[in-house]
Amino acid sequence: MTYAIAEAAHRSGLSIDTLRYYERIELISPPARDSAGRRAYSDDDLAWLEFLTKLRTTGMPIQLMREYAALCREGAVTAAPRKEILERHRDDVAARIQQLLACLDVLDYKIDNYDRLARSQEASA
């Protein structure tokens, strides 16, 4: 199945401008073209866009994403360096999750204190 750029944008959650930008900076390979010369995105293209979106959501810098994408285009011989990139990024994500969990603990502590304060004020009223 193929999708016009508007449908690919809708399905991927990215804007049309972002799809064009990703193509321009070589994060995605130029999609096939239909008989009228319009971009025709495949299911594989959409799966790749979904993966890129996850990388962005987890904070991977665009430059590192470009490096990873370039390695992918080189094929299976680059599996080891691609794995290393993902392992390093996973470590960064795990460290950030630990930081966020510590922040969540502080927020929960403060919220609990406000709950106790509210209950104490209700009891003394």
Automatic annotation (TrEMBL):
Tell me one GO molecular function of this protein: DNA binding
Q: What is one Pfam family matched by this protein?
A: MerR_1
Q: Specify whether Glycoprotein is a keyword of the entry.
A: no
Q: Which domain of life is it from?
A: Bacteria
Q: Give yes or no: UniProt keyword Plastid.
A: no
Q: Which residues form the HTH merR-type domain?
A: 2-71
Keywords, in A-Z order: DNA-binding
* Gene3D superfamilies membership: 1.10.1660.10
Q: Which PANTHER family match?
A: HTH-TYPE TRANSCRIPTIONAL REGULATOR ADHR, REDOX-CYCLING DRUG-SENSING TRANSCRIPTIONAL ACTIVATOR SOXR
Q: In its UniProt entry, what is this protein called?
A: DNA-binding transcriptional regulator, MerR family
- According to its UniProt entry, this protein's organism is Actinokineospora alba
Taxonomic placement: Bacteria, Bacillati, Actinomycetota, Actinomycetes, Pseudonocardiales
